[in-house]
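Reviewer has doubts. Consider these tokens.
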Amino acid sequence: MSDPTPRTDAAAPLPPGVPDPALAEYAVGGSLALTDAERWPLMSAQGRARLEALRHHPHAPVWVHETGDRLDSDDLTALAQIDAAVAAGTFRATAPGAPAWVDALVERAYAVVPRYRQAARTQGRRARDLSEVPPVHRGDLIEDIASFVPVDVPLDRVLEGTSSGSGGTALTVPLHPVSTAAEVLYFTDLARQAGVEWEPEPGRLGLLNVIDQRAGFTYASALTSKGGVPMARVNVHPDAWRAPGDREAFLQDQDPVVVSGHPLSLLALAELEVDLAPRVVFSGAAHLTPAARRQLERRWGVPIIDVYGTREAGLIAADLHGTPEGHAGTPTEHVVLSRRIHVEILDAAGQPVPEGTRGEITVTVEDNPYLPLLRYRTGDTAALRHDRLSDGTWAAVLVGLEGRAPVRFASAAGPWIPSVDLTQILQAYGLTGWHLHQDAAGDLELTVFAPLTPADLSAVVGAVERLTGRQPAVATVAPVDAGTAPKRRFTSTYET
């Protein structure tokens, strides 16, 4: 367990928008490094004017962070090739087994990735194919992510992505501009499959990503791959805005073409008195229930696409349609995306299970040059089915995907608190594994999967109490490996 002591003096005044001294990284402008020219090398004067208008909109939220895609002309050429391959189905498998590129990736990993080079030296030989590669999990990345980075790639263009994950400890992931920007292409292809052409529209925000939490990174940005159209990450929590009414006025004026976010964040957006007209909505980061999907569909009358992925592996699969009306208990079906990703289902011992049998979703991914993954166990479960398509290729389908459940907690003062707020707090105080439960009466029970000193335990309890207004009862159990910590970190039987 890492040192749970906050980096900021708990007695000192907190910066605006920072609800706890351990969350100093969410102070406005707390970690800026690049100039706009470095963030968007290809941005035109017109694009820069649109970005400045977004940043300085009279009703804009408090922008906490700044970020850009860093795409150059060579990157746009690479993205055009990826886009053509996705449209043509180039990455779809020609048989249910591992595609040819997987064997080449295994060979490359054992030649240039430190973790596998060391394994080859220890074992006296390299793995001959994917079946001989031991699976890895999040805990392995947390322990030594540098050992997964190839030694032959220049690191001058690394972007940082953060992931709260399912095991407790936050993880910083090295990302490449092209593999990151390619996610926009995958979203565009999914929209097209749902009958929507995602094209920039004059006067409208290209993409709105919404969060709903006490503290979070928000920013105004632009999508070079979409012609420099502006986009924004916005916190719909009332505390993220400068004045009452700003939230509604800003969102109404921006009227985004595409909206994405966590299911609870999307529901919070849907409850606002704002007449938005998105063409498509993407829900991710947690399970989208049939009831939530129907509520969002009624609110906006557009396709609601449930995407599944992890920050480490990127987008993995998507469900465009949900379960049919009146078919309670029908398992969801998420089709694996047409990209360089291979999915297996493994049992607890790391062995493949028969097709149609539930197990842990395990992915092999090539397209992030800074973090190629071989047999990465996601911690989520599903069964796998392969469907033969009319063109002779195969589609992999995750049946009954069980990922992270969206959970919120009732504070003593009344407002709901999303579990992400508690994740931020518990991670900031150094916990690597926990389970927080709210019972029907509203009482909190916190189980910590690591021994704590009395002072550290007091700090954790105090942080949870400051956020929720409720003092949790605490129990500690034996330490749990960060990669195999309990999946359900949050549960609630609270009744409104």
